């Protein structure tokens, strides 16, 4: 392993070059040492990747890794394993933990846990307000300058409902050169809601969440971004008017970006007729017309990023009455295949555009160059790569997930395109679709830490409410 | 009625019944209604069968009605209420249901405050499930007994003009009736301020109006829903007084009608709110008739699920 890896016969997908011809990639000392045909392996291990595409490792802008505090749902270890198997090299995780990531010690704790695992970068977003309570600002400067280098701030799971506080947060973030990531929602309109408001919520007798609750939030946050000059990233936009508002903001040159989740572009509220709690998330699955608008916005570039909003929950939190079930679905291990099958194969996005929204765009938004991170496959770039076979067909089996959670709406789906290997910092952390036991794993330090951790894997109190 | 892989038959939603299924259940209910008029009100149709009434939300008339229906079919009945259950100790619905069914139960009749709870139950337990009202979703046996009453009183269902007045948004009774009435070829008009009508309700097969006077001129059946005080706090309408003025079946409205519709109410009535007390007294026989029909219709449903050729 220490002698490097020669990936032989894959096609490189990089930006802006696009998809190239079959070639070899030599990875040595954590970087891409050479790209070219007929490379000599020297002492490197040769891995045949013919038929596969070698792309920059994926970057997840929006995941919930649940540590600290809700390790029974997921933790940095299980989340990292899921991410690596899903082809990710970096995962930004949301601060709605217990305690919240609203200061440098919790941020560094999460960051360090990621370093311990060594499977991908785990980069926490910080809370906008202390305890995510929406009342007083969290120390963005302290979090920004700490080891975790927090640059994105979000109270995700809840909106910052007080507009004055959101205004001041944006002003303050602008000074810190930080990014405000908004979970935009007008909570008085969505209170008690279980699914998108419309014909299906009426048919099912479930309290609705009107699209307007999100759209009013999106409009407010764009107004405030324009006023304050802050950089704004809108998390999980889900409605036609939300993307119209973003399109208009971009046209006017505002520093606004947005993401869409895989589930909001693949599923709609008509799928809820069996009260499947794995289809319950916030924002909720919207109408077919909204899905069409999101696809259009993906294609025309209004939507910058495809994220998963990976939101693990324990079985008992989903196997319950619909209105008592937690919001959220897992996504790290299915995203790439879903995108390839349902967006690329169907012609909504080219392969290059799709991968751009999973790699280049999120890394730019988070200015990952400051970590030396380069979402590219070229000589001298850090070797963070995903190797996937676009032709492999497989059926989603939630029991096989590396994530601790199984709450996916895609169980049984037949997908085309599968992650074969993941290279992180020059090391094959995933080999033939499964984690490879490398020398970095099972180190004394990690074992010690594992032994000292409390509650992981155990059923914890269901009292802690988490809306994602 | 729906059927799961395990072969259990359920009644979860009126959507599972086509028009002829409904008519056949109503015919069967008519035969069972005769049983309730006998000195010995009992037939051996479900002897040896065990039915659990799992009522996790307060209810007297529906629970009693199901209990009587099961007993008149000679089934063994267990009543399970929230106060006496493990649910109050934090046990999940899934575990509670599995525990009950482990005792050897043929059907669970469930009332639950969460929409979809009855449907979820079918995935967890191996027996028949009857939805006795789930949140704002459906109350299929209520719709059946309402159709039974309309049919007995007016002699037909097809082409009947039915106006449903009140809090449609929160009403599982309204949802089940809209679907059932559509299935048998009746016309439905919903009468309420927009703030009490859920999004997209027209797509379920109903017209809407804000005028009860227009509805009174049009309808053969006026179906009044119970109005709850909480809706004022939710800003659904300004006050009960205003509701009565705009949507109540007042003495004035009633007396000036030349052609009087059949007035129905699922109970319990709020006299002086959705219906004037004098009018309620005048139409009471139909409303108590609905209650009697409830037992017959539930006998028909339980017999269809557990007895006869399907058993």
Summarize the structure in words.
The complex is a heterodimer of chains A (468) and B (311). In chain A, helix 1 (76-85) packs across helix 2 (104-117), helix 4 crosses helix 7 (211-228) and helix 7 packs parallel to helix 8 (240-251). Chain A is built from 15 helices and 19 strands. Helix content of chain A is 29%, strand content 22%. Chain B has 2 domains: 2-139 and 291-306, 3-Layer(aba) Sandwich (Rossmann fold), CATH 3.40.50.1370; 140-290, 3-Layer(aba) Sandwich (Rossmann fold). Chain B contains 11 helices and 11 strands. In chain B, the strands form 3 sheets. Chain B has a 5-stranded parallel sheet with strand order 9-8-7-10-11, sandwiched between helices. In chain B, helix 2 packs across helix 11 and helix 5 (140-154) packs across helix 6 (172-183). The two termini of chain B are 14 Å apart. The chains are: A alpha/beta (468), B alpha/beta (311). The A-B interface holds A 197-208, 210, 274-275, 316, 319-324 and B 92-94, 112, 114-117, 119-120, 134-138, 172, 175, 198-201, 203-204.
Question: Secondary-structure blueprint of this entry?
Answer:
The complex is a heterodimer of chains A (468) and B (311).
Chain A: E1 5-14, E2 18-28, E3 31-36, E4 45-48, E5 53-56, E6 58-63, H1 76-85, E7 88-93, H2 104-117, E8 121-124, H3 140-145, E9 152-153, H4 163-175, E10 179-182, H5 187-190, E11 195-196, H6 199-204, E12 208-209, H7 211-228, E13 231-234, H8 240-251, E14 256-261, H9 262-266, H10 288-299, E15 305-307, H11 315-318, H12 335-344, H13 351-358, H14 360-365, E16 385-395, E17 414-424, E18 427-431, E19 434-435, H15 444-452
Parallel strand pairs in A: 1-4, 1-5, 6-7, 7-8, 9-10, 10-13, 11-12, 13-14, 14-15
Antiparallel strand pairs in A: 1-2, 2-3, 5-16, 16-17, 17-18, 18-19
Chain B: E1 2-3, E2 9-10, H1 19-35, E3 50-55, H2 61-72, E4 76-81, H3 93-102, E5 107-112, H4 117-124, E6 128-134, H5 140-154, E7 161-165, H6 172-183, E8 187-191, E9 207-209, H7 212-218, E10 221-224, H8 230-233, H9 240-247, H10 251-255, E11 262-264, H11 277-306
Parallel strand pairs in B: 3-4, 3-5, 5-6, 7-8, 7-10, 8-9, 10-11
Antiparallel strand pairs in B: 1-2
